[in-house]
Give the backbone structure.
Amino acid sequence: MSIDAERLKLPLARPNVLDLAPLYEVLRREAPIAPVTTPAGDPAWLVTRYEEVRLLLGDKRFGRSHPEPEKASRISTAAVQDGPTGEYATEEADHTRMRRLLTPAFSAKRMRMLGENMEELVDSCLDALIAEHEKTGVVDLHRGLAFPLPVAMICRLLGVPEEDNELFASLSERMAGTEIGEEAHKAREEFFRYMVGLVESKRGALGEDVISDLVRAQAEDPSFDYVEMVRLCVGLLFAGHETTVNRIGLGVLFLLTDRSRWDAFVADPDGRVDAVVEEVMRLGAPGDLGLLRYAREDVDIAGVTIKAGDAVVISTNAANRDASVYSHAEEFDPDRPERTHLGFGHGAHFCIGASLARTELRVVFAALAKRLPSMRLAKELDQLQVRATLTGGVAELPVTWRSA
Amino acid sequence: MNIVVDQGKCVGAGQCVLAADDVFDQRDDDGLVDLLDASPPPERLADVRHAAAVCPASAIEVEA
């Protein structure tokens, strides 16, 4: 048998949408940086232990570009995180410019100012769900809350018409699809064309929104490539809703699949919501791969040599459950003493939408605990429809608060 | 307590503002860290240490 045939093949199958494959525990202990075969069939390294995950995410010897992109290992079969992105020679400068441009619009202070706006939006979603529940007895929190809130917020921030939500949601879903082959890449092209249309329609009347900011910056800076700018807008719209929709769903499932968790939260929503949100960020593990990097030079680490150009799949999901860092690591426990996690990543690529996501999650979970304290799942966890996308999560979240 | 921030390292994540908004802020023009109070009272040490620990760019140093 060749060495390649002995390699682990990603993704490692998980028992359900909340838990990870038990093999991760073995990997963390025995092979924290292990050779694997990606879903696309190429070789890569899988990093699972907290220490190495944090180290690699903060290490500039690892980037997202590749000197010879056509020779680089391909990762997912979706059109997201499928291979290298950006220009190898200018990656760091390009990224720094992008962060400088976008950071003010997503700052903690600005997001806090949006909080009141979010509370009103969440309340109107809940009003509608409560009215529907009176008639039907069961409502879908995914369709009625987890989806519309992040979509509305990212549309306002980016300056995207909210009425386009079905279009870009379906493009996002297909783009991240792991079981639809070439369709995923077609969706990425369609999404690109949609964004070109939007960018050009805004150009005549630029406003106070992130896409307008990017159009202005690109027009003024000859080194800022038009295609890169449009790709960035697509990335922001995709990541700005997809991830939070999933996280709300996973959080509701963590809280409702064990009544004691939900009851403890309901007893003191304002006092506990921040800790609950951080635990949802730590344990919620959407998707089965990780963050993708390519080594820019040879790196010796944890007993292996990662060669320049090698692909590295960094599993923040696995790191966030590392028993050498977290006590009873697999358990959902908002009262745990450890206050940090890698749910938003680490280093130069730390999630730019972290403050937005945190604000949304805090508003959503506090409102649910206050207004629907007797809520429970209307289906078993294993019966829920799981999305076959890179970002994972559930496609439905049926709940009821009718007395049984 | 003495706090030093490195704006050259800062990636504008805003984690420090969330941890201790009486000590850290983000500048309006570029979102980078703005140190409001370089020597806050000792009772702020736990939150300031937390801010330094969660900083994704390790841009905060605390001497106590």
